[in-house]
Amino acid sequence: MNRLDVIRMVGDVITDIDVLRGSLLPDDPLRQKMNDYRILLDDRQQRLTRKVFDDNTPAFAAAAAKLKKIDSQIEASIDKLDNMEATLKNIKTFIDSVTNLLSAVAIFA
C-alpha cells in the first residue's frame, strides 16, 4: 500500500460518513458526531496530500496496514444501522490511526 492508496481509503471513509449522515435526521446527536468526524478526517486527508514523506518506511507500512484493518471493520459494520455505535467507534479509531500515521511519517503541523 502506498500514499495514494491511503489517501483514497481515507476518501472512501469520508464518503461512508456522508452516506451515514444522510440517513440521520438533522437534529440527531449521532449526525453531529458524524459531522465532527467528517471534518477531522477531511483535515487529515488534506494533510496527507500536502506532506512529503517516504511511503516505503516500516512506520508507514505498519500504519497503513492498521488503517486497512480498521477500514475493513468499518465496512463490516456500516450497513447495520443497529450497530451505529460500533461504526462510530471504528471511525474514531480510523481517524486516530490516520493522525498516528501522519505523526510517524511526516512533521505534523
List the quaternary state of the chains.
single chain
How many strands? 0
Distance between the termini: 24 Å
Q: pLDDT under 50 segments (min length 5)? A: none
Overall structural class, as computed from helix and strand content, comes to: mainly alpha
| CATH-derived topology | Transcription Elongation Factor S-II, Chain A
Q: Provide the helix percentage.
A: over 70%
User: What's the tally of helices?
Assistant: 4
| CATH C-level name | Mainly Alpha
Q: Approximately what portion of the residues adopt beta-strand conformation? A: under 5%
CA radius of gyration is 14 Å
**Structural shape:** elongated
Average pLDDT figure? 87
Can you write the helix and strand succession as a string?
Answer: HHHH
Please provide a written account of the structure:
The chain has 109 residues and is mainly alpha-helical. It has one domain: Up-down Bundle (Transcription Elongation Factor S-II, Chain A). 78% of the residues lie in helices and 0% in strands. It has four helices and no strands. The radius of gyration is 14 Å and the shape is elongated.
Short description:
This protein is mainly alpha-helical and 109 residues long.
Sum up the structure in keywords.
109 residues, mainly alpha
Question: Secondary-structure map with pairings?
Answer:
Layout: H1 3-22, H2 29-50, H3 58-78, H4 84-105
Helix pairs in contact: 1-2, 1-3, 2-4, 3-4
